[in-house]
Write a structure and sequence with these properties.
alpha/beta, eight-stranded mixed beta sheet, 12 helices, 12 strands, globular, binds adenosine-5'-triphosphate, binds iron/sulfur cluster, binds magnesium ion
């Protein structure tokens, strides 16, 4: 049974307790100075379409880094592959191909035992706390479950840890005796956050953690996540449908469309100077409080094409208001336009553009 980590434990202690050999501790300590916590390269996840030779190209060649201590917002319309990408990082689902490194360790090559260790450092919070927390278990047992699975602490220590975690997420420690149906949506999501924190993780993939909550409660949970990030030096991948939700929490933002990242930049830069027409359209939908500064709303025509059969060339071309003929031919990769700001569009800077044509089906 392993020692239960307390607030006083340093990162080094945490690493020592989770690494079985001297060399892995040395390796881990070296990694602390590395600003990149997660490195994702050319990640693909294709789901077979039953009874056909086809695939849903849910994630189709995605490359990005998550820096230690930052919040990377991952944004895009429903079905664009955000959750699939997040789950592939944790290997909750197996990527079709591509590389994922966590603190320099190859996640995709890990065996069961190594992966189990890694899961302590990488946690996930789901969109719907009602669906993700077992209604037949008391909240205290739900939060303690990761400690039980990883055999950390005895029962008394686990109870103390749960009480402490409940306090950290703004809930009364006495709530540990209650069942999930006795909680409000906001309280349940706080419990989900407490459970994710139980093992002192470094990375939390927050998959639409506030989408199922009342607007009035959303800000509270976002603020809680920010406070916890400061206190524990957490790193977040924060997944959301809309740019409005991630605006205040993100250090950087990646915009996804049909399985690809089409733009990635520091949050401020992306909101002030969006380069990709898709990002511009998403941003134009966010109301600005000052009536004198309204953006012109870009209404995207047509539905999102299916990930089973994406358009040739640029995948956004069937809805892009400034598409030209070359867009059907050229599949532009992400390229850095200014330091730290990359976009995948042939009409962003440096392209001898022909007059825009109407978007084609
Ligand atoms: N297990 C699965 N089997 C087959 N197809 C899947 C599976 N999981 C996801 N998909 C498909 O992969 C694509 C991406 O799904 P994903 O859930 O990652 O999107 P998302 O961006 O998270 O959407 P949302 O915003 O609605 O949560 C969708 O077309 C979806 O239907
Ligand atoms: S490459 Fe063409 S279709 Fe794609 S976003 Fe740029 S202009 Fe639009
Ligand atoms: Mg999702």
């Amino acid at each position: 049974m392993q020692k239960l980590l307390t607030t006083e434990d340093t990162e080094e202690t945490a690493l020592n307790s989770s690494s079985s050999s001297v060399s892995s501790v040395v390796n881990a300590n070296n990694q602390i100075n590395n600003p990149t916590l997660v490195r994702v390269r050319e990640l693909y996840k294709h789901f077979p379409v039953e009874g056909t030779g086809d695939f849903w190209r849910a994630v189709d060649g995605v490359t990005f880094d998550i820096k230690r201590g930052e919040t990377l917002g991952l944004v895009g319309e429903s079905g664009c592959g955000k959750s699939t990408a997040g789950r592939c990082l944790l290997r909750l689902i197996e990527p079709t191909r591509g590389d994922v490194e966590f603190e320099g360790r190859d996640v995709t090559a890990m065996g069961k035992r190594e992966l189990r260790e890694l899961r302590r450092a990488m946690q996930i919070i789901f969109q719907d706390p009602n669906a993700s927390l077992n209604p037949r278990m008391k909240i205290g047992d739900i939060i303690a479950e990761p400690l039980v699975i990883h055999k950390i602490g005895n029962r008394k220590e686990q109870r103390e840890r749960v009480a402490w975690l409940l306090g950290k997420v703004g809930l009364d420690p006495d709530y540990m005796k209650r069942y999930s149906h006795e909680f409000s949506g906001g309280q349940l999501q706080r419990s989900g956050v407490a459970r994710a924190l139980a093992l002192n993780p470094k990375l939390i993939v927050a998959d639409e953690p506030v989408s199922a909550l009342d607007v009035s409660v959303q800000a509270q949970v976002v603020n809680l996540l920010q406070d916890l990030q400061k206190e524990f030096g957490l790193t977040y991948l924060f997944i959301s449908h809309g740019l409005a939700v991630v605006e205040h929490i993100s250090t950087r933002v990646a915009v996804m469309y049909l399985g690809r990242i089409v733009e990635i930049a520091d949050a401020k830069d992306l909101y002030l100077n969006p380069l990709h027409p898709y990002t511009q359209a998403l941003l134009s939908a966010i109301p600005i409080p000052d009536p004198k500064e309204q953006r012109e709303r870009v209404i995207l025509k047509g539905d999102v094409p299916t990930a089973r059969n994406p358009p040739s060339g640029c995948r956004f071309r069937t809805r892009c208001p400034i598409a030209i003929d070359d867009c059907a031919r050229i599949d532009q990769e992400l390229r850095e336009i200014s330091p730290g700001h990359s976009a995948a569009c042939i009409r962003v800077e440096g392209y001898a553009s022909a007059p825009p044509s109407e978007a084609r089906p």
